[in-house]
Specification:
The chain is mostly helical and 612 residues long. It has helices at residues 2-15, 24-32, 42-57, 65-78, 100-119, 122-133, 139-165, 190-223, 230-254, 282-288, 291-300, 306-323, 333-354, 356-359, 365-381, 385-395, 401-415, 422-429, 448-451, 465-474, 502-515, 527-530, 550-554, 577-587, 607-611; strands at 258-260, 279-281, 462-464, 479-483, 496-501, 557-559, 591-595, 601-606. One of its GO terms (molecular function) is chloride channel activity.
Length: 612
Amino acid sequence: NLAFVLIAALLVVYGEPLAAGSGIPEIKCYLNGVKVRNVTRLRTLFCKAVGVLFSVSGGLLVGKEGPMIHSGGVIGGGVPQFQSLSIKNFKFNIPYFRSDRDKRDFVSAGAAAGVAAAFGAPIGGVLFSLEEGCSFWNQSLTWKTLFCTMTSTFTLNFFLSGTLDHSWGSFSQSGLLTFGVFENCHLWTLVDLIIFILIGVGGGLFGMVFNAINTRLTIFRLKYLAKTHKIARVLEALLIGFLTTVVAFLTPLWIGQCRAILDENSNSSLQRFLCPPGQYNDMATLFYNDQETAIKQLFHHSGMHAWTLGLFFIFFFLLSCLTYGSSVPSGLFVPCILCGAAYGRFVSSFLIFLYFQKIKTHIYLGTFSLIGAAAFLGGVVRMTISLTVILIECTNEISLSLPIMVTLMVAKWIGDIANHGLYDIHIFLKSVPLLEWEVPSIAKSLTAIDIMNTRLKFVYPHTRVRSIVNLLRTTAHNSFPVVTMKLPEIESKSKLASANLRYRLVVSLPQIFYSCFAVVNQEIISYEKFNEDYPRFTDIHEMNFDDLNLNQIMVSGLDVTPYMHPCPYVVHPDSPVPQVFNLFRTMGLRHLPVINSRGEVLGLITRHNLTH
């Protein structure tokens, strides 16, 4: 186990640190409009896909579904570019899909395809991208994403059916995670619905505690482990792997109970451990099987003692909370489903114990296990619509839609009382300027002038190359207002003419350096030339000026008017912050100039101003 965990940790720590965790927070930030470095690189995909294989094989309490979502996003972002930054010579200058908006749409479709492949839920994948990912959506993106998820589900089903059952074309495997056939799952009453609501309350409380503990662990890792030598993070992963192996071995030995095998159909997945022939160890059956098989045991087979279920829930809760956030690729969906299934199964066992004669005849243990899984998963990640559809598509039982919806809503409401979903917590701890659906309550009474940045750097329509080079070298801004020259006797501030992005200025400089054209006969760079190196443009500090005649070049003029945005979005200083927030969120903005009624530039608003 430790050898496999070591490989997974080395791939993350020394290969690509962004491959740690599920990758869903990073994909969510990218689709929100935030530029996350290396999130869609081929190296990240390799470390994530290979690392999660060794994480799962090493016995860590992680899932592979979350990393599949990130992997799908990487594939979606890389395929239409027809190039790789990790493989230097692999590049095709195809002029299509070379903009942030196009790439964002492909990443969104790829992430949805990852959900569809993991759970066999094409519609759930579309709703996942809509609910958790994209902040700007349109009808065209809906059917494109649905086509992508449908293709992903079809492809996986075709190859899984052929390789596992040797029945090519039968489509018997809808996804990597299947919950089996639920028998008599429609037998729930109004009284049961009330119990499901209480299970949702418990799931929200458990999710609240799970997120609070993991927040403390993440703060500790960011404060101490992230600043120490890389080997410390590798040793932490090995320590977690060792602790998980010890618990998985000792709990069946000390706590597990030997029970008679009553169902011959489930004999293959029951673990005998040290029990006599014809019996199995219930705790070993949960720990020694893979997590998908353990979930099916809780959903469909009896024979688990309530004492075993309760202790398994506690140990699995703590170990999975400890594991998520360490330096290994790790998903969260399946561990939460298994932990919640044990919780729901414990509740049903407790009810049978209290009211054996009255309710045993109609209680179906699998229904309570599924509701418990939905409650705990909803309490941790705080998703509602997409998670409901994903669970319904996994179970193939529409009759459970109402209990699942009610449980998820209650779990989310209870959990939101104390903290946010785990993905949002990790985004917040990394100080990523993510724009949520709603404007922060503290900013509702503010206006644009209260949050704007007044320390601006300007660009004039016709300026010296020396000024542009000094500006780019001394600042890290990605957008510069293009202003007209002010008249000292008339105007107090420069008037906004347009806005220009950093990469456009950088790309336009070599044209001046290597041709030394004057401003009157400056050659206009084409749109295809601008986007030729997308998405990694040359940095100003990487340009070599040693062999150039700097005296002649630096005094040359540069006309930026062909490359500037002629009609940027602007706001008045008295505009309310909720209006500014909606502009950023719905239009995918990164910068927003603030001008007065005379067109004079007063400041600039960025995502950082809206989130800090």
